[in-house]
Design a protein that fits this description.
Elements: E1 3-11, E2 14-23, E3 30-31, H1 33-39, H2 46-59, H3 70-90, H4 107-112, H5 125-137
Helix pairs in contact: 1-2, 2-3
């Protein structure tokens, strides 16, 4: 199963930092370094997303086997990367977050420990929950 993680720092609509990791398309998890570099300093336009997704596909080093070809896996990487960046650009990524997620401990329990799970009181669970509800309503 191919997996991709995309983390972007965005200020005033411009990407300030990017990390894109690809799993199950190389012997180990890899960074799509050229795709990351393609994003920094730019707005997430359709053209920029397409270019970065293409570079992520090029970074993949999948194998051919009985389940699928390497070329198919590269195209999946490209498509998933484009979909993820489009979701981040539009704010649709928040729509997938549950309002009341199932947790082993409450966020307050995490906060009270020295785990550093929540790094500031104003970024606690209730603020996150308010933000998500506000995003879904707009």
């Amino acid at each position: 199963m191919i997996n991709i993680a995309i983390c972007l720092g965005i200020e005033n609509g411009v990407v300030t930092g990017a990390a894109i990791t690809l799993g199950a398309v190389a012997p180990t998890i890899i960074h799509a370094v050229d795709a990351e570099a393609c994003l920094v300093g730019k707005e997430l336009t359709e053209e920029v997303i397409t270019a970065a997704a293409g570079k992520a596909g090029e970074a993949a080093r999948p194998i051919d086997d009985v389940r699928s070809s390497a070329e198919y896996r590269r195209s999946v990487v490209q498509g998933l990367t484009a979909r993820g960046m489009s979701a981040l650009a539009s704010g649709r990524d928040l729509m997938a977050l549950p309002v009341d997620p199932v947790l082993l401990r409450t966020p307050e329990e995490y906060w009270n420990e020295e785990s550093g799970f929540l790094d500031a009181p104003d970024r606690g669970y209730s603020k996150w929950k308010e933000d998500v509800i506000f995003q879904r309503a707009s």
